[in-house]
Amino acid sequence: MKSYITVGEIMSRKHFDQTKVIAGESGLTRQLKWIHIIESPQVNSLLKGNELVLSTGIGWKDNPKDLLYFVQQLIGCNAAGLCIEINTHITNIPQDVIALANTHQFPIIIFLKEVLFVEITQDIHSLIINKQYQLLTDLEQFSQKLNKMMLEVDQHEQFLTLIQSYLDVQVITKFNCGKVECFPNLSAQQRQRLLNEAPNSKLFISKLSKNVQILGDRYAELIIISKSRNLNEFDALILDRTATILGQFWLRDLYVSEKKMDKEHEWLTSWLNAEIKSDVLFNHLSPLHIPSSFSGGIVWVCYVKELLERSPNKEFTYFKLITRTVFEQFGFHLFYVESEKNLIIISLDKRKNDNWKERMTKALHSIHHHDSHSRKSYFDISIGAGQYVKNIMKINKSYQAALNTLKLQEYVNKENRSYFYEDLHMYRMLTLLKEQGNLEETVYEYLEPVMEYDKSYNGELLTTLKTYLACNGSKQETSRKLFIVRQTLYHRIEKLETILGGDFMQSGKRLELEFMLVAYDYLTKYKKEIYLKTQTH
Q1: Could you give all domains of the chain from N- to C-terminal order, each with its CATH number?
Q2: pLDDT tens for each residue of 156-208
Q3: Which residues form the Purine catabolism PurC-like domain (predicted)?
Q4: 180-183 vs 296-303, strand pairing mode
Q5: In the predicted structure, residue 256 carries a pLDDT above the cut 50
Q6: Ramachandran area for residue 417 (φ above 0: left; ψ -120 to 50: alpha; else beta)
Q7: By C-alpha distance, which of 166, 147, 159, 124 is closest to 3?
């Protein structure tokens, strides 16, 4: 598909029958976008690139050196070429101008007889406008062909072959997973050189790229490279349409794959329940990856409150597509198991496990960021992540820990919540103490005097104590956070010292108080949750 007009093509038009190319003949392949008449030597502010300039030479007839400066500016503005009417104001072109034009492959054409510039501009502009109209028609036809292929083809390579043959370019697709495809095919060395080489180098003249988006995230990068011409706006539009249809095609494939995998998850359930043998597990994993190359795994569980009641299959599938797309970018391969209340995700780590938590946190934040810009809301989903296990045969251990994390989160204040089991160690100990039956009694033994004072005098000692400890005894920061003046804070600290003893900030006693305050918040939240559940039932 030839989407542009060259300087060489207009040489066959009727107004160019008495012309001669005196310099830069190898540049006749330059693209031509417009015709411009200029007689002034100052042109920098007049041109945008790819214009063919017409001139009678009146601007430099008294000073031929101005022509050299004029041509230098045209070359700098990426003009398509220069046409000069000879024998009207000038009779020849200086040799240094011809040498400059040949060096930069910049065409200089002379009219051997007088011509009407207005007729030339009308003729060429009509040609350009008709070409633009034809390109719009071609673009629409190309789009229709893509839409038809969307319904008929089952391999994305067919779209890439189409754009390659249509534009006569090299096509390269870089997937987020690291896979690279080339049409026509290239050796690994050739591919690497093309991807790393800058445009206008020895390897190629021009390069364009477009990200293929799926659910708001980049899935791949589509690149076209030309070795023979500068890629233009039409090429960019064709690239854009192809990238859009590829995104829709891959989204459809991913959706179908997720639905298919939903029906084949029995072995995943056995894996979660530690009821699968290693050879059976590795047999299921081998088509996807070499099992031994996984550095470990972690299970995370999503508890969905309202989405299940609305449209569970549709919502879960959409959520799976988002999470799989994002987590793949951070080095995890995901498996999903749906239970009555939860969506269970097994995340196998394809990278070194030393920064798995950081990568997983970034992935979850990325999903929440996507969620905030989406009409579908997943903020109702509570997420609990279990322990990271290096032996994927022990994934059941991570699964049980993830369930415990979800359960613990019901009794943890919002500011102390975490996705991860290992971050809730204090609350795990509190749960054990609560089950022993003496946690509440112990907490009140420590904090009752402070609470009784607040109750009797409508005070804020308990809140002050908690903030003072959190600020590591900094009076300035504590008063700022409580929005009180220093004198009020000093008065409250004196009361706390009277009730708890002057040594309450010393390490041993401070540690006990901090633990009891966390336990108090835990018990308060626990009682509230129990009450709400009782009211619901």
Answers
A1: 5-126 (3.40.1390.20), 153-251 (3.30.450.40), 264-427 (3.30.70.100), 437-536 (no CATH)
A2: 999 999 999 988 899 999 988 778 899 998 888 888 888 787 666 677 888 89
A3: 9-128
A4: unpaired
A5: yes
A6: beta
A7: 166
Cis ω on the peptide bond leading into residue 312 (within 30° of 0)? no
Predicted model pTM: 0.49
Could you give the CA distance from residue 457 to residue 497 in angstroms, rounded to a whole number? 17
At residue 44, what are phi and psi to the nearest 5 degrees? Answer: -55, -40
User: Six-digit token pair at 408?
Assistant: 């613990």
Average pLDDT over residues 147-152: 89
Cross-strand pairs, 386: none
Q: Give pLDDT tens digits for 487-536.
A: 998 888 888 888 888 878 887 677 777 777 777 776 776 666 554 555 55
**Which residue from 15, 22, 17, 50 is spatially nearest to 35, judged by alpha carbons?**
50
Is the previous residue joined to 287 through a cis bond, with omega within 30 degrees of 0? no
Q: Do residues 4 and 108 touch, judged by C-beta distance below 8 A?
A: no
Please tell me what DSSP assigns to residue 420.
B
Q: Report how far residue 530's alpha carbon sits from residue 537's, in angstroms, rounded to the nearest whole number.
A: 11
- Using the structure block, give the residue that is written with the tokens 């009779």: 91
Give 3-state DSSP helix, strand, coil % of the chain, rounded to 5: 55, 15, 30
